[in-house]
Amino acid sequence: MSNASEQGPTEGLRGRLHEIIFEAETPAGRAFDVGLLWAILFSIIAVMLESVASVRAQYGSLLLGVEWFFTGLFTLEYLLRLFSVSKPLRYARSFFGLVDLLAILPTFLSVLIPGAQSLLAIRVLRLLRVFRVLKLSHLLGQAEVLLTALRASRPKITVFLGTVLTIVVIMGALMYVVEGQENGFDSIPRAMYWAIVTVTTVGFGDITPKTAPGQFIASILMVMGYGIIAVPTGIVSVELAAATRHAVDNRACPACGQQGHDLDAHFCKHCGHGL
Amino acid sequence: MSNASEQGPTEGLRGRLHEIIFEAETPAGRAFDVGLLWAILFSIIAVMLESVASVRAQYGSLLLGVEWFFTGLFTLEYLLRLFSVSKPLRYARSFFGLVDLLAILPTFLSVLIPGAQSLLAIRVLRLLRVFRVLKLSHLLGQAEVLLTALRASRPKITVFLGTVLTIVVIMGALMYVVEGQENGFDSIPRAMYWAIVTVTTVGFGDITPKTAPGQFIASILMVMGYGIIAVPTGIVSVELAAATRHAVDNRACPACGQQGHDLDAHFCKHCGHGL
Amino acid sequence: MSNASEQGPTEGLRGRLHEIIFEAETPAGRAFDVGLLWAILFSIIAVMLESVASVRAQYGSLLLGVEWFFTGLFTLEYLLRLFSVSKPLRYARSFFGLVDLLAILPTFLSVLIPGAQSLLAIRVLRLLRVFRVLKLSHLLGQAEVLLTALRASRPKITVFLGTVLTIVVIMGALMYVVEGQENGFDSIPRAMYWAIVTVTTVGFGDITPKTAPGQFIASILMVMGYGIIAVPTGIVSVELAAATRHAVDNRACPACGQQGHDLDAHFCKHCGHGL
Amino acid sequence: MSNASEQGPTEGLRGRLHEIIFEAETPAGRAFDVGLLWAILFSIIAVMLESVASVRAQYGSLLLGVEWFFTGLFTLEYLLRLFSVSKPLRYARSFFGLVDLLAILPTFLSVLIPGAQSLLAIRVLRLLRVFRVLKLSHLLGQAEVLLTALRASRPKITVFLGTVLTIVVIMGALMYVVEGQENGFDSIPRAMYWAIVTVTTVGFGDITPKTAPGQFIASILMVMGYGIIAVPTGIVSVELAAATRHAVDNRACPACGQQGHDLDAHFCKHCGHGL
């Protein structure tokens, strides 16, 4: 629950700051987290609104002010984080340290490189900071079960994705030959993009087969896509059922200490000791 | 089964009315429910037909008459409901009380504010009144199992929806930068709309990536959308299996104490003792 | 396995014909079934090819000949079926009797009503005759398991479809008001068609929301559609698991004769007798 | 693990070559496999890039050189394979032997038949050669479980696909009659293509119903497609659960005889006896 062990225990002002900023067990720590959550959400809404041409035309200066306000706030927070941890460099190079830096950098850079509209979009990465706050919530346990299920499914999902990719490459090349440039399939990569659009049942319709053989091949691809969606679903169902089952029983053997016993087990399956 | 306890038992005419209008155990009550069901369905069909320009042009006055007929009917019903319950205000402020009011209000308001076409569409909310009638049906048990499964899945589904939303925000901002205004991605919210269209495999095709990097990112998003649909499906399958299992039985055999008997079992399947 | 009991046992020529036409246990009966299967498939391919303008222009007279050949064949078969059963009227009014008649009627009617192109399309219903032949195949058991699962899921699927329909009606009316006639949502039924296209994740893109609020509502509808597909999938998975489990054990109790015992049952759960 | 038994043991240079080319247990054999994997991937990327008009215009001669380099490499490899096996003809006629030949043939043929662009696309079949290398990897076990599940589901999936095909044929013919040529449904095969696009929820939108009855039928088809996706998913889930379970264990306890132990169990979980 506590991040203290990560950055090492600290004392005095730094220790107090660390408790507020990095932990959520004290009222001040919890208030800081809630405040941060709202600041992140509002700043992202501001970034989004700024990207809408009509809103930027009318409220451009207001949004600029809001942006600098949040950038100032996040800069202050970043400096306080650097100050409150015992190993600032280790924090700065951690995943969340980089995300924290990316949350403020684009605004400063936009002064140096004017017109760098695309830089500003990086600021939506602030959203990732929400996970820093949420990692202390009760949803974590559920996320853990989901992750366990997905991790256990990884080899099967790799096989599945490999099969899908093979189908996409071969079907894409086939459609490039059959339909050709005049129907929008003007290169194998583009035909592969079409094959992905089709096999995932997205079906934008920006490129569509026009010839009879092309429509026949497309039909086969669609039925394949419609059918093989069953495979990852089945995989995750089975692994999730296993993850849920295992989550229920977490008894450790009193003799050998090993876990992973079934719910109906009366004896340790590793050493035979009674549970 | 009876709603009487909700509004309190009443006597005489009010009691009789309450029995007919709110309950379904007497022949009169059941007849009232069936009649109401048909009235709701016909009035909604009339609202739908009225919205079709060609039908309105030809049968406009007939539909207006039908509309006022049903409004009169539902107004009478609403007044009778108010009269027959012991606490009319409590009924009026309940969910179904508000739905009952919304079913008649738009027609009356359309006289005061002529041309308020959009007001009339509110009348399709009458459809919600169907659930008032159906709540006494045999489908309720099944709906209960489904709801139990969905309620148990809620934390997992929250985590899942949060992940999808994060993907949508970040992918939307990325596509806004990569594709830009000239390809239809003219703001982050619109690019997010596109990302939702894509990740859910709907794929309208009103906005599509035109550049090679845009199509590459879109391909990744599509495969993600195609794959992560497996997660809610797996979640609901597992929870539904649990909800169904619990609905089945939890009797233990009085002789050997083992559980897991079917609902229709009269004897223990392990030792043959009567349950 | 035998249909004889259905139409009653017959003797002599009629009995022999019945055996060949309706049953599949003799070599002649099996040969008849296989021949019929090919005749059905070829006649349907001919109907399909005839509908293609360019093929009709070139091979029109050949296809007409093929059509009359198959019509003659199926007419002969129909008359033989009528002759070989003991109750011809009962056969003629049965489901497959009507399908057999519909397989030949359109061709004869096309002589009386020339140019009735649409009549000819009815002939694809000949495809249903395939099921008459296949009903004796080894796939029947599998179809039975699937049907048992779907039948057991029916109340849950009814609740599910009712919910989807309610969402479609209310979302359709909402989009009719929000987007309006100028964006293609020109009536509530059309807006409902759009809502079905969206919630089922088909996403044709023939009608799409153009306004920001419309795209926001559409996003919610898409996420709903993406999520609630999990519900029928979960339902069918659970019921199919149950149907498969029950299909495995089909022991009847020696004492009371009742079935439906679990695989691990040693005693009848109905009467307690040892299995 | 070893392919030696397939082609028979060989000695001297041939035996050494066989070990390197066909097996992966020696460091040289593993290095050969990794090198081959990279050669396949790079040659496929080259084929893809060559199909892009703008890349071909600029780097055409470079890509031609790359192509001939890889063709030379694969030709050398093919000859070495032919030399190192004891029965070259048997190898040449095997599936992977043909794939190996198809990987080099198109480039040579492109000299004889100039401009045969489509021939070059055949070279993406080189991708299939990846599976030759990967068949020794740890993913094989997972693929085996998936294949077992799919094989067990085959009769059910046949029934399912047959039902989908019947729906597609009948709905296609119906839409051909209802919508007709003027709305893009200009033949039954094209209308069937549309029905597949719709029932699989792909929804390109290249052909869409324009009339009210057509949109109504399309709505039914979409809801069917949305619902029946649950069937293959349920089938695969159930079979995958069974395949996973069987992969786990079928040891019985020598003391109490009960089964259902985990793969890593050394002692019976019911009585504690060593397994």
List the main descriptive attributes of the protein structure presented here.
Four Helix Bundle (Hemerythrin (Met), subunit A), potassium channel (chains A, B, C, D), Ion_trans_dom (chains A, B, C, D), Helix Hairpins, 275 residues, mainly alpha, transport (chains A, B, C, D), homotetramer
What's this entry about, in short?
Chain A has helices at 4-7, 12-22, 27-51, 53-84, 88-93, 95-102, 105-112, 117-121, 129-134, 139-178, 188-199, 212-228, 230-248.
What does this entry look like structurally?
The structure is a homotetramer of 275-residue chains. With 275 residues, chain A is mainly alpha-helical. Chain A folds into two domains: 2-135, Voltage-gated potassium channels. Chain C (Four Helix Bundle (Hemerythrin (Met), subunit A), Up-down Bundle); 145-244, Helix Hairpins, CATH 1.10.287. The first copy, chain A, is built from 13 helices and no strands. In chain A, helix 2 (12-22) crosses helix 3, helix 3 (27-51) packs antiparallel against helix 4 and helix 10 (139-178) packs antiparallel against helix 13. The longest helix of chain A has 40 residues, at 139-178. Chain A is flat. The first copy, chain A, starts with a helix and ends in a 27-residue tail after the last helix. The relative contact order of chain A is 0.06. Residues 1-10 of chain A have low confidence and may be disordered. Chains in contact: A-B, A-C, A-D, B-C, B-D, C-D. At the B-C interface, helix 3, helix 8, helix 9, helix 10 and helix 11 of B face helix 10, helix 11, helix 12 and helix 13 of C. Chains A, B, C, D: GO terms for molecular function: voltage-gated potassium channel activity. Chains A, B, C, D: One of its GO terms (cellular component) is voltage-gated potassium channel complex. Chains A, B, C, D: It is a multi-pass membrane protein. Chains A, B, C, D: Keywords: Ion channel, Ion transport, Membrane, Potassium, Potassium channel, Potassium transport, Transmembrane, Transmembrane helix, Transport.
